[in-house]
User: Fold this.
Amino acid sequence: MGKEKILVVDDEEDILELVRYNLAREGYEVLCAESGEEALKAVSHRNPDLMVLDLMLPGIDGLEVTRRLKAESDHRVMPIIMLTAKGEESDIVTGLELGADDYITKPFSPRILLARIRAVLRRRARKETVDDGVLRIDDMMIHPGRREVKIGDRPVDLTFTEFQVLSFLARRPGWVFTRTQIVDAVRGDDYPVTDRSVDVQIVGLRRKLGDYGSFIQTVRGVGYRFKEKA
Assistant:
């Protein structure tokens, strides 16, 4: 049985109760909020282990809640699973870029939601063996232990997922990986694989890395690789 504290944020009473009931039955401690403002207060005062967050909320919407939390040092590592209506691809992409860990489309299966929650919490709790070896590619430095990227003296502000993708590819220069392999390595086997979600991370990385973005090469019909140094 899980003992983690989960905050569920949704302004639809039926959905809120459905999620609350299923999580409580699995042994989780469940907190509920019906607006973005309530969600931010609950995070500040109750410090949940994970948040299930609807995007369409009165007042402060789910994307703004995510943006504010990821900008705070105290709560930026808290996992967020977004809830969104089908077809809102732009919101999903924005949420992932802001640092959300996963997303569920409405209507959804409670069993799938529970599986996704367990997967995200498992990844959070997993004791990773961190390789502190610093990667240097010309003037770019990737520090896994500090989760830091610099080009010269300029720090590069990457989301959690962008850093994971860059580190994964850069450690295996010349190797070609499919989008599925990249997502499995970064998120785990339970993450919903879509070409779009991987491509969005690559586009964001290339933009932020400037000239070094060209090191991430597209292999048409297959996936991506990190260019080997000549």
In short: DSSP finds eight helices and twelve strands in the chain.
